[in-house]
Specification:
By secondary structure, the chain is of the alpha/beta class. The protein has three domains: 68 residues, dopa decarboxylase, N-terminal domain (Up-down Bundle), CATH 1.20.1340; 270 residues, 3-Layer(aba) Sandwich (Aspartate Aminotransferase, domain 2), CATH 3.40.640; 105 residues, Aspartate Aminotransferase, domain 1 (Alpha-Beta Complex). It contains 16 helices and eleven strands. The strands form two sheets. It has a seven-stranded mixed sheet with strand order 1-7-6-5-4-2-3, with helices on both faces. Strand 4, helix 10 and strand 5 form a beta-alpha-beta unit. The mean pLDDT is 95. The structure holds pyridoxal-5'-phosphate. Pyridoxal-5'-phosphate (PLP) binds next to helix 6.
């Protein structure tokens, strides 16, 4: 118990514990490869180890660090392990952690420009930098009619874009009077589930989403998109929103933006581009082809928390017409009115997102960009994409395996040519070993293992060792299957 006249942590105590926390995090990173990548605890195990009731009197902060080691760490899946190849990554780095700590330290809430001007202005500025860094259209910059905003996740970014599109198509009427259930949304069969979720949340209804067929590389087939739109128009429906994906979750497929964009242009449909994982690769000139046709986009999002070295959460949403977004989300109660807001001289980011309040997320992104510079980030991304190509070639050389989708960037999709069951068993064996963590998907209805390379400290050696380990486990399994 703190034996002092204030209940709060003194500045000296804060410093002492703060240094310990930084040391704890540094030790964690130093030892991270000694932990099983996937947590091995059973459901409910952590809760059983925790006291049933909260402490009546305050405790020493040291107790928390002790419990971090004894109770929390066993229940952690180590997303920051260089042997984490599951899902898409959520990368953390020193500068991002420290930038986030500065944000926590300031503890501001940036809902309005006036509620902390630096929060808004740094965000607009860094998002403008990123337009140049990724070679995105100038219309996404804050000095045009558009602009960028940091959302928590790509799911929120898509939801906001969808709501803006819905408003635009109804000339703002939906905000006042609801809508008549005739709106249609299009995305590919391989698009992320967050698109359907946004459609549900927006009240459009999942029956009004059209999942467009894909080609042999799992990219949206624009001919099928056109057919679906024409059919809906014939049935007096309103095609309102197309979401194209640059880097699908299952296989990193790249939808053809030029063809899709032309269709959207012709029919006056809002085009949103979800580049959650892959978008960051466009910082390297040689990967900018992924954005061919991006000029057609009305909105675009990518996640620095996936591939741009910035801690979760950080998803950048850009729109070409900020009025559409703002009108769809604005609220203006008396207690939030400020003179500067009424003057249109500033952005109030509360009107660009679902929640009112917002953290100072730009600090971590700013720290990352300044610490690494464009060259540093490019070399990081190039390293991962090269490792993926290296792995893809190794897999291709072994006849027992097949690569299931083009290795465009940092995701390799493969399977042992045997049954789905074999691949399932192999994946279980690999993950139960604790040596690495991978997840699966289905491509052409075949159970496929996804090897996603994106964790900050993953090197080509980690990838090679993981492949050797996969071969070892495959051979063990081959032997038991023969018996
Ligand atoms: N879009 C794509 C292509 C994704 O791969 C993902 C997640 O992996 C998402 C959207 C959803 O991301 P978030 O967790 O930021 O909502």
């Amino acid at each position: 118990m703190n034996n002092k006249d204030t209940i709060h942590m003194s500045i000296n105590e804060f410093k002492e514990n703060g240094y310990k926390v930084i040391d704890w995090i540094a030790d964690y990173y130093e030892n991270i490869e000694s932990y099983p990548v996937l947590s091995t605890i059973k459901p409910g195990e952590l809760r059983k180890s925790l006291p049933k009731n909260p402490p009546k009197d305050g405790e020493n902060f040291n107790n928390i660090l002790t419990d971090m080691d004894d109770k929390i760490i066993p229940g952690v899946t180590h997303w920051q392990s260089p042997n984490f190849f599951a899902y898409f990554p959520c990368n953390a780095t020193g500068p991002a952690i420290l930038g986030d700590l500065l944000s926590s330290g300031l503890g501001i809430q940036g809902m309005l420009w006036a509620s902390s001007p630096a929060c808004t202005e740094l965000e607009s500025h860094v998002l403008d930098w990123l337009v140049d860094m990724l070679h995105l259209p100038e219309k996404f910059k804050s000095d045009s009619f558009g602009g960028g905003v940091i959302q928590d996740t790509a799911s929120s970014a898509t939801l906001c874009a969808l709501i803006a599109a819905r408003e635009k198509i109804s000339n703002g009427k939906i905000n006042e009077s609801g809508f008549d259930n005739s709106i249609r949304v299009y995305t590919s069969m391989e698009a992320h589930s967050s698109i359907e979720k946004a459609v549900k949340i927006a009240g459009i209804g999942s029956k009004n989403i059209r999942l467009i067929e894909v080609d042999q590389d799992f990219a949206m087939n624009p001919i099928k998109l056109r057919e679906a739109i024409n059919k809906d128009i014939k049935n007096r429906k309103i095609p309102a929103f197309v979401c194209a994906t640059i880097g699908t979750t299952s296989s990193s497929a790249i939808d053809p933006l030029n063809e899709i964009g032309e269709i959207c242009n012709e029919f006056g449909i809002w085009l949103h581009v979800d580049a959650a994982m892959a978008g960051s690769a466009s910082i390297c000139p040689e990967y900018r082809f992924i954005h061919d046709g991006i000029d057609y986009a009305d909105s675009y999002c990518f996640n620095p928390h996936k591939f741009l070295l910035t801690n979760f959460d950080c998803s950048c949403l850009y729109v070409s017409d900020r009025e559409a977004l703002i009108k769809s989300l604005t609220i203006n109660p008396e207690y939030l009115k400020t003179e500067v807001s009424q003057s249109d001289a500033v952005f109030d980011y509360r009107d660009w997102q679902v929640p009112l309040g917002r953290r100072f997320r730009a600090l971590k992104l700013w720290s990352v960009i300044r610490y690494y510079g464009i060259n540093g980030i490019q070399s990081h991304i190039r390293g991962h994409i090269k490792s993926a190509k290296f792995l893809s070639d190794l897999i291709t050389e072994d006849n027992r395996f097949e690569v299931m989708a083009p290795t465009v960037l940092n995701l390799v999709c493969f399977r042992y040519r045997e049954s789905n069951q074999f691949n399932k068993l192999l994946l279980n064996e690999l993950n139960n070993s604790g040596e690495l963590y991978l997840v699966h998907t289905k491509l052409n209805n075949k159970y496929t293992i996804r090897f996603s390379i994106g964790q900050t400290n993953t090197t080509k050696d980690h990838v090679l060792n993981a492949w050797k380990f996969i071969l070892k486990k495959t051979e063990e399994l081959e032997r038991t299957m023969v018996k």
